[in-house]
Amino acid sequence: MSQNAKLTRGSIPGHLVSQTAPMIIGVAAIMSIGLVDSYFIGQLGSQQLAAISFIFPISVALSSLGVGIMVGINSVVARALGAGDDNRAARRANFGIVFAVGCGVVLGLALFALMDPLFRLMNADEALMPFIRTYMQPFAISFPLLLAIMGINGVLRGQGEAQKTSLVSLTYAAANWVLDPILITGAFGFEGFGIAGAAYATAIGWACGIAMAFYLLRRTPLPFDLKLLKRCGISESAGAILSVAGPAAFSNAINPIGLSILTALVAIEGQAAVAGFGAAGRLQSFAVVPLLALSGAIGGIVGQNWGANKLDRARKAVVYAGVFSVGYGLAIAAVLFSFGEWFADFFTEEAAVIEQFARYLTIAAWGYAGYGLLIVGNGVLNSVGKAGLALAQSCARVFLVMLPFAWFLRGSWGADAVYGAELAANVLGGLVSAVVVWWVLKAKPDARKDAEPTAETQAA
After folding, report:
1. Burial per residue of 147-163, b for 16 or more beta-carbon CB atoms within 10 angstroms, e otherwise
2. DSSP bridge partners of 187
3. Does residue 460 surpass a pLDDT of 50?
4. Which residue has the higher pLDDT, 107 or 447?
5. How far is the first Cα of the chain from the last one, in angstroms, to the nearest whole number?
6. 394: which of 174, 254, 275, 280 fits an S-S bond (Cβ 3.0–4.6 Å)?
7. Which residues, in sequence order, are CB contacts of 335 under 8 Å at separation 6+?
8. Residue 185, CA distances (Å) to 34, 189, 218 in order
9. How far is CA 135 from CA 94, 112, 199, 387, in A?
10. 350 phi/psi in degrees, rounded to 5
11. How far apart are CA 224 and CA 240, in angstroms?
12. Confidence at 293, pLDDT banded by 50, 70, 90
């Protein structure tokens, strides 16, 4: 066991707090970008707000693929450190960063090429397409910047450096906060770029985040060193990362893909329904920040202890995380249920949009506890090399529960069918995830098979 595997020692509740608290700040900063974007874009008009509602699930889906790559890097680095193999951890870390950037280039080019057919498939109104294009073109070109940040943050998370990952997130979020009002609506005599200004602000923020990330990475035991790429074993390193990152990327992308389909179904109910659904979804993303942070923090803790064969510590961490997910999920649901219309006033003054916004929160918010169990469960499964199970339960949640529910009831329930579909999917998904995770962690130590080669079999 490596001395750098600091999460294998000390208090489990203490590690959960020390790793999750900074990530709450970091994830909140990231999610605030969407809220700030929506606030200033909402001042441009309801058409622009509806356009960003179509854009949101696509941007989240692509970012989720990046999160999957980050999870894969996190997993292999944490387990290598837990097993006491610092050299392997360093090789995987450096290869992972380069691999992440390459994936960002491919995804960005694909988005740029397939932009129009993609949004038409989502039933985007032709009047909205010019707004969508002006945002998505700079977003696609700059997308590799985000994947570079994801790669570095995967290395930092695997080392248990939650504070450093949060500082990276705060850096690019703060740049976005400052630039949004200037580049979207204009300030200091500058007229602004409209909806495209939000994309420009995001791209500049990512560039600032990369600079901070490389600076912080240099101050860890696993700094970026191109020389290590010559000894990393490209095919073997890629296979180790992809064994987790592949399923994790698709698992993370499944929810926004389902959200894209739900947005298309809501679009049938009219532009006000789309605007309300999209704006409420952004508020929801901010409301579940502690759950998202916990799902990111649990991977390093469980991964290092799993690699060190300290399964009792891994199980204890999962129990504490599950209890928090249920308690927080129910508490925040009560708040959003009670003050839905008050929150809606921040985004728009149109009565029809406010009605749909509040209606969504009234129904869907009660599933947040289940959603917390699901994403924390996925974080645990990814960290122990069981990413295929995480992908299976995410697919089942969306394709066996959410979409059939919304499709078959939309004729009689209208937009409520979509909101109810999220509720049902989150409750059932959370219950299934809890059972699956506990079954995996109850496996006997001598029966489990690590997804990576041991330190003895790994080439120097």
Report:
1. bbbbbbbbbbbbbbbbb
2. 190
3. no
4. 107
5. 17
6. 254
7. 287
8. 16, 11, 38
9. 32, 11, 6, 33
10. -80, 125
11. 19
12. confident
pLDDT of residue 413: 83
Residue 447 has pLDDT above 50, yes or no: no
Q: What single DSSP character describes residue 187?
A: B
Which among 23, 39, 36, 34 has a CA at the least distance from the CA of 58? 34
Question: Tokens for 222?
Answer: 């696993």
Which amino acid is it at 299?
A: G
Calpha distance 363→360 (Å, rounded): 6
Sign of CA dihedral 149, 308, 317, 376: positive
Across 151-176, average pLDDT: 89
Whether residue 33 is predicted with pLDDT greater than 60 in this model: the reply is: yes
DSSP type of residue 401:
I
What would the two tokens of residue 425 be?
Answer: 């999917």
Copy the structure tokens of residue 66. Answer: 């990046």
| Composition of the chain by helix, strand, coil, percent to 5 | 85, 0, 15
CA 75 centroid distance within chain:
16
Phi, psi of 190, rounded to the nearest 5 degrees: -90, 135
Residues 318, 302: contact at Cβ < 8 Å? Answer: yes
- The stretch 182-203 carries a mean pLDDT of 88
- pLDDT at position 229 is 67
Question: What is the chain's length?
Answer: 460
3-state DSSP assignment of residue 118 = helix
Structure tokens belonging to residue 110: 């694909």
Instruction: Decide: 78 and 158 in contact? Cβ < 8 Å.
Output: yes
- Euclidean distance between CA atoms 149 and 164, whole angstroms: 12
Q: Where does the pLDDT of residue 458 fall: very low under 50, low under 70, confident under 90, or very high at 90 and above?
A: very low
Distance CA 190, CA 285 (A): 31
Q: Residues 104, 144: contact at Cβ < 8 Å?
A: yes
Question: Looking at per-residue confidence, does 304 or 333 come out higher?
Answer: 333
Q: Is 454 left (phi over 0), alpha (psi -120 to 50) or beta?
A: beta
User: At a CB cut-off of 8 Å and minimum separation 6, what does 398 contact?
Assistant: 254, 255, 257, 258, 425
190 - beta bridge partners? 187
pLDDT for 349 equals 67
Residues 6+ apart with CB under 8 A from 404: none
Q: Quick: pLDDT tens for 197-245.
A: 999 999 999 999 999 999 999 988 888 877 766 665 677 677 777 777 7
